[in-house]
Design brief:
heterodimer; A: alpha/beta; seven-stranded mixed β-sheet; five-stranded mixed β-sheet; 17 strands; elongated; B: five-stranded mixed β-sheet; 12 strands
């Protein structure tokens, strides 16, 4: 089986041609030049030096991730183009499995890791099955922990545990091992060593050999179906998912007597003239009051309410506990409160707010409130004017 | 024409949020034109997210290229050259097309031609299957240089003098926002959503273009350059003011008045160029070229000046690969070849090589 292999997942760009037990060519360049510019010229050089007829290639193996998103795509797009042009299958080789092959046959815990920023790495933990331990059909690579994003601290703990249980020392390789070496030295207790330069980085020869094993197991794919495995969603998707999850976790419910101890705590903490528990208890029993609370993932996060007089409602006690602020809870709470008020016949809402409380003022304005007057020195400690806001 | 004289180009385009491939023969005969749009995904985010665009390109590119070959009834063995957009655009998105096109060309020993995205838009006007070639039942001659061209899209606003195939002189460009960008931002502000161009075009039909007097942007010291950020701010200020006063906003009137302000400036600058350079042909190109108000106003202006007016069919106005194949053909004839180190150039300038 003849394989053309590509790895552009990290800083090194690497291409190789491997036929069964022979590595015919391997070309690795590790500098800052973009893979977009170097990869195809490198392949071209390899083809020319080997006098390679591409028609003789059986499959294209590519480091499929993790790695730099752009780097992965350059390698993938090239592999997919070659696959399309030659009508050959692709072999998606997990980047870190290929890197583990740099230490093929080792009995150590082989740990390739790529820098994923913010004290995180993409890492996997591997070791190799020894010849006497299994039948010949077995995959020589033993995956103890599949490649995934992980914090340095957690990885070191995991390695300490594994090393203690198995008695195996640890070998660290990849740019993550270099980037976080100081942190690793602080945290990792297990006996360990760092890979030397020629074994420390991605190389297409390893991608080719690992790819051949995967192909033997039937794990090939069409060029059309291949896509990189980034091990991380894009930032925009993550932000959107978080936002939706927090919206899902937020519930606006009627305030009940059981909540009052939490409410009076908050009153005492945040207001110079707090309402007492008795005032709230009284309000909850009267029809012209309505009080709501916000729960974040089942935990009390804030409350608000109004006192209604015919078509007018005065909104009071808009409070979000400090730990839950800046998440749009007040907005959601007020939206629900005003909706319920309108359903009860409220036509206009009014409220008072400290002049200096700019976030609150701008929130109210975005909900349709406008300034209609000022109460001089209304608030105590510190003394301050109250703005009187009304809706239309 | 005998088969030997045909130059068949496989073209690939991935500069923004459309994954596209086409087979074009001799620059004007489109044998296939496949466009896979990602617009549904980006609509969720209110605009194109580069990382998501890049990911979608790589998932679809093989299917799109294969479809283009299948639709044309050809295999790669019958293709003479591979063309690809290498800029301007989103770098991550461009890289997918560039790496893919290079690999295909390399594996099949075919020449590679890197194409400028805007030159592609301009060249869409060479494609004879464009509906604009027939007017009042009379077939216009195929467009050939020299001519003037107004390129307007989400990312570009250029007034260009096309001196010859592959020879471009930029007369004017935007000093700030692209016209299409202003459309997107204004559409968002009046609650029409993304993409702004078609939505404003539609809303404007219900409104009065003279209802609100928005400013016509000028750039000091240049008769051809454009500025749309002042107009955009004027619209946003107008909306804020209305909101503060609690007054109703007529979306149709805002859309129509804003659109008129954009179109007036585009047409005025184009007419100035027609007079100064004596063009007898004038073309429009780019996504905004399918805007009905711009099309009608430009057509009318060209009629007034006795100039033949060209515009691509709507499908060739949006990002597509057929236009890249058209541009590539004339590059190919001029002997332009890219080498294997061709890179994506996100801010590639027109006429720069």
């Amino acid at each position: 089986m003849k394989i053309l292999a590509i790895d552009s997942s990290g800083m090194p760009a690497s291409v190789a041609v491997c036929e069964d037990g022979t590595l015919a060519a391997e070309y690795t360049v590790n500098n800052r030049k973009t893979h977009s510019q170097t990869l195809v010229p490198m392949m071209d050089e390899v083809r020319n030096l080997l006098g390679l007829d591409l028609e003789s290639v059986d499959a294209i193996a590519v480091a499929g991730g993790p790695g730099s998103f752009t780097g992965l795509r350059i390698g993938s797009a090239a592999a997919k183009g070659i696959g399309l042009a030659l009508d050959r299958p692709l072999i998606h080789v997990p980047t870190l499995e290929a890197m583990a092959y740099n230490y093929y046959g080792s009995e150590c815990l082989v740990v390739p890791m790529l820098d994923a920023r913010n004290h995180q790495v993409f890492a996997g933990i591997y070791t190799f099955r020894q010849p006497e331990s299994g039948a010949e059909q077995d995959d020589p690579l033993c995956v103890l922990s599949d490649q995934e994003p992980v914090g340095i601290g957690e990885l070191c703990e995991r390695l300490d545990g594994l090393s203690r249980d198995t008695g195996k020392p640890v070998i660290l390789l990849g740019d993550g091992a270099q980037a976080y070496r100081t942190m690793i030295e602080e945290k990792l207790k297990a006996p360990h060593q760092y890979a030397p330069a020629h074994l420390a980085q991605q190389r297409a020869g390893s991608v080719a050999v690992r790819g051949m094993e995967l192909a033997r197991q039937g794990r090939t794919e069409t060029a059309a179906m291949h896509r990189p495995d980034y091990l991380r969603v894009s930032q925009a998707e993550r932000v959107r998912a978080e936002k939706r999850a927090s919206e899902d976790a937020l519930r606006i419910l009627p305030l009940t007597a059981e909540d009052l101890p939490l409410v009076t705590d908050a009153e005492r903490q945040y207001y110079s003239l707090p309402w007492s528990e008795r005032v709230f208890r009284d309000a909850l029993n009267r029809e012209y009051y309505l009080f709501l609370k916000a729960e974040m993932a089942g935990t009390f996060a804030g409350y608000c309410g109004f006192q209604q007089s015919f078509g007018i409602a005065e909104i009071t006690n808009v409070t979000v506990l400090e730990a839950y602020r800046r998440r749009g809870i007040a907005r959601r709470m007020l939206q629900v409160l005003m909706e319920k008020g309108r359903a009860r016949g409220v036509e206009r809402f009014t409220l008072e707010v400290r002049r200096s409380n700019e976030p609150a003022v701008s929130l109210y304005k975005s909900l349709g409130f406008y300034e209609e007057g000022v109460r001089k020195d209304y608030y105590e400690a510190p003394k301050e004017d109250a703005l009187i806001l009304w809706t239309k | 024409m005998t088969e030997k004289e045909e130059t068949r180009i496989l073209a690939i385009e991935s500069s923004c949020d459309e994954t596209a491939a086409a087979v074009v023969v001799n620059g004007r005969d489109v044998r296939s034109n496949v466009i896979s749009s990602q617009i549904d995904i980006h609509t969720l985010y209110g605009g194109v997210v580069p990382e998501i665009a890049s990911r979608k390109h790589i998932e679809r590119i093989n299917q799109v290229v294969q479809q283009a070959l299948d639709d044309a009834g050809m295999t790669l063995d019958e293709i003479d050259a591979v063309a690809v957009t290498y800029g301007p655009g989103l770098v991550g998105a461009l890289l997918v097309g560039v790496a893919h096109a290079k690999a295909i060309a390399w594996a099949k020993n075919l020449p590679l031609i890197g194409v400028h995205h805007i030159e592609g838009h301009i060249s869409a006007n060479y494609i004879s299957s464009g509906i604009s070639s027939v007017e009042d039942g009379v077939r216009k001659p195929d467009l050939e240089p020299p001519f003037g061209c107004l390129v307007v899209s989400g990312g570009h606003t250029h007034l260009v003098r096309v001196k010859d195939y592959g020879e471009y002189e930029i007369l004017g460009k935007t000093a700030d926002d692209a016209a299409g960008e202003a459309f997107d931002k204004v559409a968002r502000a009046i609650g029409l959503g993304y993409p702004g161009g078609p939505k404003i075009d539609k809303a404007a039909r219900e409104g009065d273009a003279r209802a609100i007097e928005f400013p016509r942007g000028k750039v000091r010291g240049s008769v051809y350059d454009f500025s749309f950020s002042g107009l955009k701010s004027a619209v946003l200020n107008y909306l804020n003011e209305k909101k503060m006063k609690g007054e109703e906003i007529c979306v149709g009137n805002v859309a129509a008045s804003f659109q008129k302000a954009v179109v007036d400036v585009l047409v005025e600058h184009s007419e100035h160029a027609i007079r100064e350079f004596g063009f007898d042909r004038f073309a429009i190109a780019g996504g905004v070229a399918s805007n009905s108000a711009l099309r009608e106003a430009m057509e009318e202006a060209c009629r007034r000046h006795g100039v033949l007016f060209y515009r691509p069919s709507p499908v060739l106005c949006t990002d597509n690969a057929a236009m890249i194949g058209a541009a590539a053909y004339y590059e190919y004839r001029r002997g332009v070849r890219s080498d294997w180190s061709l890179n994506a150039v996100p801010n590639l300038k027109l006429g720069e090589r």
